[in-house]
């Protein structure tokens, strides 16, 4: 069911009349009962939603455009009735996995749970930890590599100081840092955490109700990798903070702040750290007007942003007179905060708060309406057009590239009427129907040349929006393993050789055997000597060479080879003998051995004899495959000698060694 917000909607209430503020968005009733809920978008434009019914049943759904396309019961998560630490969702940026955590209800509030939907769509549940202390404000985020990060405030009855416990789930195992993020020196509370579109993780918390502190790490890293930043205060106390990172790497934080002398009124205060900068701005009142703070409900503002110039802050509040439940939204655009009211009859309750999510095209607000069901407000963000280029590695293009211009679907009374695509300022195509695609042949562009691509979308209300990006002509490296041949058989130490070319430059090559990195080389020739005798296992091996160019692009080639072991001779032995005649005297070490019957795959044509001195081998000689003795003449009578005897195939391949020591 959809409802277009009117400029003037009159509600008759017992205490008087109230008007909806002007809005261009659409309200959609999702028609699902919910008590707690949370939502987050992935990089593909899908909104992932979890909600929990009053009886503790948990559900998951995806919102695409303006439709809740799935309503999936989560069978492993039940009796989810926690309040102060409501479940929080985190979606891997590529959308492959969905995670949420919560603290068990009163009576077992020393346990935290983690539930996740894996890449196969299967739901899993685990206990993150059982601690002897009270867990408060648990939050998690999954980074771009799939590592799950988790923080919470650790309450202790015997102490007024609360540390933060931080953990990461790596290879299925939780590793915790007890007090390294925020030690037990102050009251660290209201923890929150989010991942960014690139897969990094960002965490915030409050220290003793005043300063907000912040940490981050890149995908695959740890919050301990970077120092803590403190956010400037503005003289107000702070509660209930939220953090969001836009696609331009700007960090946005909002919190409920109030003057302690007038604690029944507060503001949604907003601060930003611009990409590349190390400090946050001084918080400002994004809500403009005061927010009512009552004992029954303490507002918890949330924030999302498309850029530093387009920010959304949302909150719910309980008005004092008449107990009217309000959902408010304030938008920062053109340098001005503009607040509006989305709902005057929301069914908010203690510890509840609306959810915000944003895609390249739309902003979504989700809250609990007056009948206890979820309602969604959806509006164009003003970005208008999201452009993706495929195939694309970072901002590199090569060969024939498909430029795909993704535009928002029709929403309310607004839709796309035309898309113009420019390459270096020249229009190359104009289209009024989806899909908006263009096949671009980059073969004539010189390697290393930068090219600007710009898409301009015109809406049916005559407004325009555009998106642009700069790409570089840079092809990935080409890799070809020339030796050994694919599906060939190797018998002993083998040289792996590869031909690698790149249009700009090769940085390095990596040699893998069965996905294990064995060798790295930065200059040609790109070769690596592999000795399968180190494992001695007769089987098929996958040999792969992976090359990196100077632009961090990769190319690879792999082959399969079969290793057949050349077994050394058996029963190798040696004895020192005297070779004497009337005019001649010498000592000789006489070596003997037997043929190895395991060499059924090979024809042994020779045996090769080495002298080993100080770890180095010196070949003494060879005998044919039917000879099983060798004499090393003119040796020292009191010397000790070590020999290696190897089986040699008709193809000249050398096998392992039989070692003999002669005293």
Structure characteristics:
mainly beta, Neuraminidase, 5 domains, disordered N terminus, 663 residues, five-stranded antiparallel sheet
Structure description:
The protein is an all-beta fold. It has five domains: 169 residues, no CATH class; 172 residues, Neuraminidase; 88 residues, Immunoglobulins (Immunoglobulin-like, Sandwich), CATH 2.60.40; 86 residues, Immunoglobulins (Immunoglobulin-like, Sandwich), CATH 2.60.40; 93 residues, Immunoglobulins (Immunoglobulin-like). 0% of the residues lie in helices and 57% in strands. It is elongated. The termini are far apart.
Please specify the SSE layout and strand pairing:
Blueprint: E1 2-4, E2 10-13, E3 16-19, E4 26-33, E5 36-41, E6 47-52, E7 58-64, E8 67-68, E9 72-73, E10 88-91, E11 98-103, E12 111-117, E13 123-130, E14 134-142, E15 148-155, E16 164-170, E17 173-182, E18 188-195, E19 201-207, E20 212-217, E21 229-231, E22 237-245, E23 251-258, E24 265-273, E25 284-285, E26 291-292, E27 302-307, E28 310-318, E29 325-333, E30 336-343, E31 355-358, E32 362-368, E33 373-380, E34 386-390, E35 396-397, E36 400-406, E37 416-423, E38 426-431, E39 436-441, E40 450-459, E41 464-473, E42 478-483, E43 489-490, E44 494-501, E45 506-513, E46 516-521, E47 526-530, E48 540-549, E49 554-563, E50 570-580, E51 585-594, E52 604-613, E53 616-624, E54 629-635, E55 641-649, E56 654-662
Parallel strand pairs: 35-41, 43-49
Antiparallel strand pairs: 1-4, 2-3, 4-33, 5-6, 6-7, 7-8, 7-9, 10-11, 11-12, 12-13, 14-15, 15-16, 16-17, 18-19, 19-20, 20-21, 22-23, 23-24, 24-25, 24-26, 27-28, 28-29, 29-30, 31-32, 32-33, 34-36, 36-39, 37-38, 37-40, 40-41, 42-44, 44-47, 45-46, 45-48, 48-49, 50-51, 51-54, 52-53, 52-55, 55-56
């Amino acid at each position: 069911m959809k409802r277009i917000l009117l400029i003037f909607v009159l509600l008759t209430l017992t205490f008087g009349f109230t008007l909806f503020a002007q809005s261009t968005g659409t309200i959609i009733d999702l028609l699902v009962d919910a008590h707690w809920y949370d939502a987050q978008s992935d990089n593909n434009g899908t909104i992932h939603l979890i909600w929990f019914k009053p009886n503790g049943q948990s559900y998951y759904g995806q919102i695409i455009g303006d439709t809740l396309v799935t309503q999936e019961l989560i069978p492993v998560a039940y009796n989810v009735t926690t309040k102060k630490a409501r479940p929080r969702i985190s979606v891997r940026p590529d959308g492959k996995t969905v995670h949420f955590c919560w603290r068990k209800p009163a009576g077992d509030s020393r346990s935290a749970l983690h539930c996740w939907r894996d890449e196969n769509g299967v739901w899993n549940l685990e206990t993150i930890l059982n601690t002897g202390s009270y867990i408060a404000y648990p939050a998690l985020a999954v980074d771009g590599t799939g590592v799950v990060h988790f923080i919470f405030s650790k309450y202790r009855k015997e102490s007024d100081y609360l540390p933060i416990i931080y953990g990461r789930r790596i290879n299925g195992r939780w590793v915790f840092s007890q007090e390294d993020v925020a030690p037990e020196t102050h009251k660290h509370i209201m923890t929150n955490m989010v991942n960014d579109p690139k897969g990094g993780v960002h965490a915030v918390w409050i220290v003793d109700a005043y300063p907000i502190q912040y940490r981050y790490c890149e995908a695959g890293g740890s919050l301990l990798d970077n120092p803590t930043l403190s956010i400037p205060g503005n003289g107000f106390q702070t509660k209930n903070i939220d953090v969001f990172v836009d696609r331009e790497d700007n960090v946005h934080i909002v919190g409920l702040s109030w003057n302690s002398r007038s604690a029944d009124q507060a503001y949604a205060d907003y601060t930003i750290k611009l990409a590349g900068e190390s400090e946050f701005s001084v918080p400002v009142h994004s809500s403009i007007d005061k927010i009512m703070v009552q004992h029954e409900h303490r507002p918890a503002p949330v924030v999302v942003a498309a850029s530093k110039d387009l920010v959304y802050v949302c909150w719910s509040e309980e008005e004092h007179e008449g107990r009217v439940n309000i959902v408010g939204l304030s938008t920062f655009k053109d340098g001005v905060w503009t607040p509006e009211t989305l709902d005057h009859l929301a069914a908010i309750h203690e510890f509840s708060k609306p959810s915000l999510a944003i895609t390249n095209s739309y902003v979504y607000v989700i809250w609990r309406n007056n009948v206890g069901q979820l309602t969604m407000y959806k509006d164009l963000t003003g970005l208008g057009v999201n452009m993706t280029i495929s195939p694309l590695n970072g901002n590199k293009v090569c060969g024939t590239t498909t430029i795909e211009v993704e535009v928002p679907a029709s929403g309310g009374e607004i839709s796309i009427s035309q898309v113009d695509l420019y390459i270096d300022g020249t229009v190359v195509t104009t289209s009024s129907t989806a899909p908006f695609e263009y096949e671009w042949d980059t073969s004539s562009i010189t390697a290393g040349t930068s090219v600007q691509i710009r898409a301009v979308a015109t809406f049916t209300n005559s407004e325009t929006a555009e998106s642009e990006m700069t790409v570089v002509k840079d092809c990935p490296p080409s890799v070809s393993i020339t030796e050994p041949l694919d599906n060939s058989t190797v018998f002993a130490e083998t040289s792996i050789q590869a031909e690698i070319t790149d249009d700009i430059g090769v940085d390095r090559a990596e040699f893998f055997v069965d996905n294990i990195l064995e060798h790295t080389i930065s200059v040609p020739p790109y070769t690596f000597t592999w000795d399968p005798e180190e494992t001695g296992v007769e089987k098929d091996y996958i040999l792969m060479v992976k090359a990196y160019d100077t632009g961090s692009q990769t190319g690879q080639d792999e082959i399969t080879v079969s290793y057949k072991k050349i077994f050394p001779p058996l029963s190798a032995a040696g004895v020192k003998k005297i070779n004497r005649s009337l005019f001649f005297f010498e000592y000789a070490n006489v070596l003997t051995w037997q043929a190895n019957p395991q060499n059924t795959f090979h024809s042994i044509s020779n045996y090769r004899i080495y002298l080993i001195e100080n770890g180095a081998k010196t070949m003494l000689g060879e005998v044919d495959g039917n000879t099983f003795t060798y004499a090393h003449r003119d040796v020292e009578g009191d010397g000790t000698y070590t020999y290696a005897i190897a089986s040699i195939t008709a193809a000249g391949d050398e096998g392992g060694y039989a070692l003999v020591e002669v005293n």
